[in-house]
Specification:
The structure is a homotetramer. The first copy, chain A, is mainly α. The first copy, chain A, contains 21 helices and four strands. In chain A, strands 1-2 form a two-stranded antiparallel ribbon. Chain A has a two-stranded antiparallel ribbon with strand order 3-4. In chain A, helix 3 runs parallel beside helix 21, helix 7 runs parallel beside helix 13 and helix 8 packs antiparallel against helix 11. The first copy, chain A, starts with 18 loop residues before the first helix and ends with a helix. Chains A and C meet through helix 1, helix 12 and helix 13 of A and helix 1, helix 12 and helix 13 of C.
Chain lengths: ~475, ~475, ~475, ~475
């Protein structure tokens, strides 16, 4: 139990909760990161109160100006919040009241802490989400660029971590990027479009508030939330956000696993530059892939946070329960984890260098191209089953003779089936095998370029759509509102 | 370890895996529910192979007809799958080969088990999702209807499980419905729009397949998946589906908690009919809310399944790993849990009867209407702060005198502030308090009717959009394809 | 991504990792709480190095004294760690080298960061666990005392949240306490008995170290860990600890649910004192049970942390992976949550006052004693089935007549069965019903007193056993080691 | 919603629950696996009722004999349970009543479904746990034997999946075994020592039951549970069991990851025999490690089940809630998953063959022995820091010259430091490096043999202790009870 540093203040009521319990129950430590969001929610509310006549225009103006001033301080990280308040919302109200006296107290007209907190949380999720979407889209764009640089790299694709078929480096990077982009789209789809402000404690208000105006000022395209009781007990937006963030972390964990494996002495497909690897003065050959291990491990936090939130809300009654306060750590904490992991991959990936020779060697004995050989026969007109059987025989014979497939001469091959002519046997060349797979989604060059163009287009759109959804933009909209 | 009931068959290769291990590694038990989906995937594939000339039109026709015949059997639950196969896909191929000989074997041209399995899983998720969306939408529609029947019911809304403000029964039911609908929309948004068929083992095909055709036949509006390597290792659709299903279960868990609480001897807000309660011959007054307890508990399965899938995919390399087979239990098992819970609430809710008198009594002493009294003064022109202070004094005095707020006469009230005239004091009447909250999302009658109309409209659209996405419709589309 | 505040230092090697990545990969923020444990691990190691001659006794003495000095500073919270180091272990080594020069560098002889970190973590878990066991045992002891004070309180026990049978307050509190104690025993059983120091990087050492000595100095009763490769990749102790902590949180969540329900206007079984409830100046009757809501919600963090750790370690290869660094947040963070929740209940529970009249009223109509009446007939010699039938008839008749069971006269009852004499009907008295259940584990007074004595004995033993396992005791043992 | 196949029966009461809801709420499908446990619980109860005179000795004898007969049928898998009952407990009672009429009905004297179900569950957990402990201990014993066979195998140990230091095969296998054994001990420690029978519905009984006798007959060493209200709502034993099972699965997942990696074309440390690998007729070189992939994936089920149970019980009130029925799937389902995975590894591991040459080659260039060289100098009397520096220079020089460490001659080495004599340089030999690490827990031969002896001793004890805790032994104890 933390010491009783939270004093009883006017804001927390003159009730006499034991100081240690007051301190323990405070969410200040967790929600101090919501200061800017809370300030903007209040600024929009004050503007609306003035507009509807629930407070005077003069008071509304005073409040708005003071709040936008606090916002500017918070942006510069120079906002000093009074200690000893129960949460960030109380701390800001207390600042305001110190400055404006009774006018400060008018701010709480026709709102409750329940809708106020929910508004700040949603603003946070919406804008942080936008920032993460932009970051992820930028990572995808940089991976697409890198993919183009790795068009000529040939390496095995794996199933069961066994070499399966040769693919291009561009195709592999496109695969990772496709997973990351899919997760990013999920994040972009998280629904935080509605504004809770005005839901009140749980049933709305009998005063003539204008919820549409506050929703508009705060940039919520869906307008006000639909049912006040649902609103104050709803953390679905937080859950969806945390889940979608975790989807990104899961996608990154798979890329990380590949890089870690590829950087081993056994694979040697990639070399990690000094700029991203942790070395050892005793074993200079050792370049530990710490960054990618830590990217891989981050998904575990996402999973834990999703579970925490689900467990938290399960079985709560309709309306607000104090339990909901414990949404903060996951809601505010998941974003930085995702942002950190995205940033780490962005910084580190350029220092991952593929070893083309080692990569190609891994598909050079022809065994991973047996299917390609069969398909070559099919393209020459042979039924698939016959082709399949013929290749099977060839493969068996090579294995029995301890020979690689690629080393068989046309003459040797033809003893198994006349169709094994030189043209067909070229399919065993990994470079040709890659080139031939031009089905949609395949590893052929044109197919891959199509994939990269699509990735690029989608990532660019996502980036553009989300770049402007910032707290600063909200602040400007409120400041610009005429009154 | 189950006994070694899976024999080595042609399909599983003539490799000599130990029978007990073959049995243990079989997914047959879990994926037998995918028979229809697998059959339809194969029928679409055969149609495409014929269309592109990769097999003869005659063979394609034979295959398609046989497969649609198997589908019809499966629909009637009379499809007998051979035992002893490794999974449902092998079992069906084995059926086909028994019947059509070599023609049956041609089916596997230009596909791999990896894309085949993924196709069946996505068909399952897509159509089961549609069915659940329809069920959930129907539940919302029936709740909306019930809400309209409870317009005149007045009961307290709760915060911290303490009586907070009076609301109408319609508003409460709208709150539950809003949560359920929001989760349903999330489910409807799960992205299973792309078709994996043709991704092959991991890198596409060098044969001239037509992935757009199979995607169309199988009803995937997004066309083929974009990158083959990503496709075969991707279970994001399953994870999103399981997550969205869990969102529905979480929403239902909250409704269930309210019903359980309301049915206690202490609340007595609802009576559970004999048709839905478990009784006791010793204690006839006891009507246990078992159905709602079981609805509440079901969310735990959802949470467990989401975690299982996340843990499963974390850190897998790009491409297919056999680990992915263990997606079946969650992917196929979550739907029936959600369907069961939705069905249970649908059946049970009409037998939940509100006790209007008991409900109203809970808000009749006026204490839950103190805010309404203050707002009444504001509506008369008094600044909110003054109103707030005046009501505060009145409440304190009533408490000190051990009187209820509602019992104070106008004369008594006016000794605290002249504004407490009869008109203002009427705000303490819970019926009037409810009626006055006409802000958007509020509990006022017009506001609630707006909420109900919106719920109805959205639920109707969801129901209509998803009614037609069935396996049967896929089968008909394939059967109707000219060739 | 945090800004690049971690500089490249001698400790982190002169490798050139990008500063932002170095900062991102640092665990400093999470493991600063391990300073004291790290210092003590080093002090024990230095002592051993001197004792075995791997460094000179003089150097060993210098190191130990300096380290114990740092420990003393850390105890007083005046230890200033240099910023810019990768983790707390490096920061401390850097402090030491600044002070002692080359002697400081000798400390790292025959150890690796892998065993060093593991040692600090286990010391933390072991001693924090001890502290939590003591706290939990004290809570149980205080609940036992309270239980004795509530011996005469009669209230319903619930099944399905329906009144089931009358029990004493002492019995109810004993039930909660039994769950808490069981979880506490699980925590006490967590196995952190073995000392990892000397495992080295992963395979032990070829130098003549004495692992038994360091284990003894650090207070690990199980001696050194058994296999070095297992040791450096093992976080089972952390997982078990986090799991057991969560078991305590789950037990507290159930107690919290009861208090929240009992404090509603509907139950009114308890009143929450002002010292523990959050009020409202507008609604003075409202006493929100925030403390218990927050106790209830805390279990969600435990569940999330258990999942995070499980997901983290699944599928890691044998030996150390950097992923393991992400054990810190759960390992160090779960303890304070449990400690906070235990402390909150300890402080709050004395301010929970039962309303004896309301409690008794809930079992006064006799319906919850129907089973007791049947058992009374059995005690008079009637076969149970007959007794059961006779009571069933009586209950039905009362219900039909809209009468309570308790209101039936002997004469009325006898019309159903002659066995319903006055003596038998007394069983409907809730006080007698409670008194009669003297089976082991029953709610009868003697049975409950037996339960309380057992709880008291077990809790006392747990408290005594764990009081002395502190870091301070470790420091003293090291300081007292002769050399 | 399943169709309404559960009829209303005498057992479920004549209440009129809607058949579909009755069917949906039935746990029959999940708990049919508890038939034997339920029968034995009833047999013990009947014996006690006779002994205490609550029913006649004749009735008790009839009941016991009939129940033991049903048990014998269940053991032979020929027990036919009536369909249409709500759960397995009702189905068995119904069988009994069909056979014995009124005597069958006497069985339910002084017990409730709540304690009956809990008894069956605990019997299941206790005996299944014993079986799993035996299986796991046997796996450890077989791994120890294998370890002895791999004493001369030398391969790298890894940190960060980078080669770190050479170890023996025996040491590596001992590492895996240590993790498995630790998890097995945790499972053996799960506390299911107390017997719930006699707790009744929630508060005990007023009849003179003898709970100590039933506990003894059923083999619960801890005697009766302590508090009836706690007992009927407690599923901690199930949670602890599921958690401990998951610990085993996590340990197996790490072994599996190593085998999967080692079987790649890149590592080639092991070859998987045909008996355990899934092949491909097209790519005969491909031996997919499916069995180990599936072992690795199984831990995800454990994690999901732990979470499901935690989420289920969080926040339930004291006493029984119907929610608890949803413990079945995890409680009954986790055991077979663990048993299957243990059996799979047991069967598969003998078919994993190490390639000694490839393994040794991986540590032959000397780089992984740099630390050993430094320690060799220390053993010659040089201070560690100086040794460390000298080796560092040598390593750098070799790297710069593109030479391996091992290839340096004594003369070349001595140009860096005179201490690099032939004796010292021998430390670069991986075989010697392994041999030298004889610290406790190290990879030296004697140290490893000590580890193996300890593993063997502990596993043998666990096996012996748990072999006899079977349902059959319980049945015999009941049958042998004189009366």
């Amino acid at each position: 139990m933390a010491s009783g540093s939270i004093a009883r203040t006017a804001a927390t009521g003159d009730g006499g909760m034991i100081p240690e319990l007051l301190a323990w129950s405070s969410s200040m430590e967790d929600d101090v990161g919501l200061a800017r969001e809370d300030i903007l929610g209040s600024a929009a509310h004050a503007t609306m109160l003035g507009e509807t006549g629930l407070i005077s225009r003069e008071d509304a103006k005073l409040l708005r100006e003071e709040l936008l001033g606090l916002y500017a301080q918070a942006e510069k990280s120079v906002l000093a919040l009074p200690s000893g308040e129960e949460d960030v919302h109380m701390a800001i109200e207390s600042l305001l009241t110190d400055k404006l006296g009774d006018v400060g107290k008018r701010l709480h007209t026709a709102r409750s802490r329940n809708d106020q907190v929910s508004t700040a949380l949603r603003l946070h999720v919406r804008t942080r989400r936008a920032r993460l979407v932009v970051l992820a889209a930028e990572l995808v764009l940089s991976l697409v660029e890198r993919a183009r640089a790795e068009k000529d790299l040939i390496l095995p694709a794996y199933t069961h971590r066994q070499r399966a078929q040769p693919v291009s480096g561009a195709f592999l990077i496109a695969a990772w990027s496709t997973g990351i982009l899919r997760a990013t789209k999920r994040l972009a789809d998280v629904d935080v479009s509605e504004c809770p402000l005005g839901a009140g404690a749980c049933s709305g208000s009998s005063l003539g508030i204008d919820r549409t105006l506050t929703a508009k000022l705060l940039g919520f395209p869906g307008g006000p939330t639909k049912n006040a009781l649902d609103t104050v007990g709803d953390r679905d937006f937080s859950l969806d956000y945390t889940y979608a963030c975790t989807r990104i972390l899961l996608a990154l964990s798979r890329l990380a696993t590949d890089i870690i494996d590829y950087s081993t002495s056994e694979f040697r497909f990639v070399k990690l530059g000094d700029a991203i690897s942790a070395g050892s003065s005793m074993m200079p050959q050792k370049k530990n892939p710490d960054i990618f291990e830590l990217v891989r491990s981050k998904a575990s936090f996402g999973v834990g946070n999703v579970v925490q939130l689900m467990t938290l809300v399960r079985g709560l009654h309709a309306g607000y329960s104090r339990d909901l306060q414990d949404d903060r750590r996951a809601t505010l904490g998941t974003g930085p984890i995702v942002g950190g992991a995205l940033g780490a991959v962005m910084l580190a990936f350029p220092h991952v260098k593929f070893d083309k020779v080692a990569c190609l060697r891994a598909v050079s004995d022809g065994s991973t191209q047996a299917t390609d050989l069969a398909e070559a026969l099919v393209r020459q007109g042979m039924p698939f089953r016959d082709a399949y059987k013929a290749v099977g025989k060839l493969v068996s014979a090579a294995t029995d003779a301890n020979r690689t497939l690629i080393s068989l001469t046309e003459a040797e091959a033809k003893t198994f089936h006349p169709a094994f002519n030189e043209a067909a046997l070229r399919a065993l060349d990994p470079v040709r095998a890659v080139a031939a797979k031009e089905s949609i989604g395949g590893t052929g060059a044109a197919s891959v370029e199509g994939q990269l163009l699509a990735l690029e287009a989608e990532a660019t759109i996502l980036r553009e759509l989300h770049t402007t959804d910032t707290l600063r933009a909200v602040a400007e909209r409120i400041a610009d509102y005429p009154n």
